[in-house]
Amino acid sequence: MRAVLRIVLTLLNLIFLLFLEIGESALSNCSSLVELLVPQLQKVNNVYGLTFNGVGNLKVVDVHLNQQFSGFGGALPDKEGTTVYVGNENVKQTLQKELKKAKVVVEGS
């Protein structure tokens, strides 16, 4: 996964319908990335804090199919103008503890 993502630094949208995990540094320096659609995401590895390093233009993140998503582990840049779509109110409340500036929205509400 990392090798592919490093090649697509100029992509605006990444859609990974079946991905369950984003690895350490996987999206590092994808500065043009605007939308990240990983609706079944379960885990973000961010041990060294580099997973979303250099991803500053992200506007939409979609994890709405995982009803137990527990967070980005501090990896996702918390910015106004970013909207995170989730599957239920419990996930929304959990993410709002991690994301103070980004908007967290329950999909379909």
Strand content: 15-25%
- Helix count equals 2
Tally the beta strands. Answer: 7
Order of helices and strands: HEEEEEEHE
Structural class: alpha/beta
Question: What is the helix content?
Answer: 10-25%
- Computed over alpha carbons, the radius of gyration is 13 Å
Rounded to the nearest angstrom, the distance between the terminal CA atoms is: 32 Å
Regions with little confidence, pLDDT below 50 for 5+ residues: 1-10
Query: Mind summarizing the main beta sheet?
Result: 5 strands, parallel
Q: What topology, given as strand order, has the largest sheet?
A: 1-3-5-6-7
Q: Taking all residues together, what is the mean pLDDT?
A: 84
Instruction: Please give the oligomerization state of what you see.
Output: single chain
Shape descriptor reads globular
List the helices and strands and how they pair.
Layout: H1 2-7, E1 13-15, E2 21-22, E3 35-37, E4 43-44, E5 60-62, E6 83-86, H2 89-98, E7 103-106
Parallel strand pairs: 1-3, 2-4, 3-5, 5-6, 6-7
What does this structure look like?
The chain is an alpha/beta fold and 109 residues long. The protein has 2 helices and 7 strands; from the N terminus they run αββββββαβ. A 5-stranded parallel beta sheet has the order 1-3-5-6-7, covered by helices on one side. A two-stranded parallel sheet has the order 2-4. The longest helix has 10 residues.
